[in-house]
Design a protein that fits this description.
Shape: globular
Number of strands: 0
Number of helices: 6
Strand content: under 5%
Largest sheet: none
Radius of gyration: 17 Å
Helix content: over 70%
Structural class: mainly alpha
Length: 149
């Protein structure tokens, strides 16, 4: 039940965020779906007691993949789906905890959450880079195969 509520919450939050970003109306539900897929993967991985950094990486990988697929199917820029969709994996709680522990003067916990937040941010960037590279190199291969026929 928690997973279903999390998916629904991700969809609603991303749909609202897409409206805030002035995403074209016809793509708003698709951006919400992208975020819901990423939110589902993140929640599923964390429920299976996977590390938060790895869960964020897998979630961002799925979001980047779905964004590229939607961009090609619906003839839209990838960023229309990616920017709104990536919101569930952004480490906002980690950034909050960093500031909280700075105020509390707890250097150990502050350092822990700082490192974790940087790792998550790096994994998000790496996942987007990997998917972008795969889709970029896939295009010349398709063109090369089309020329042979």
């Amino acid at each position: 039940m928690t997973l279903i509520l999390g998916i629904a919450g991700s969809f609603i939050a991303i749909t609202g965020f897409a409206v805030l970003l002035e995403t074209p109306k016809k793509y708003v539900p698709l951006a919400g779906l992208t975020g819901a897929i990423g939110g589902w993967i993140y929640l599923y991985c964390t429920q299976k007691e996977m590390d938060v950094v790895l869960a964020s990486f897998l979630s961002a990988l799925a979001i980047a993949f779905v964004s590229h697929v939607f961009a090609r199917v619906f003839k839209a820029p990838v960023t229309v789906f990616l920017i709104a969709g990536i919101l569930p994996t952004v480490p906002g709680a980690g950034m909050y905890r960093i500031v909280y522990y700075i105020i509390e003067n707890d250097r150990e916990m502050c350092g822990y959450y700082l490192l974790q937040t940087l790792e998550i941010a790096g994994m998000i960037a790496l996942a987007i880079f990997i998917m972008d590279t795969i889709f970029r190199f896939g295009k010349p291969l398709r063109e090369c195969n089309a020329e042979k026929k």
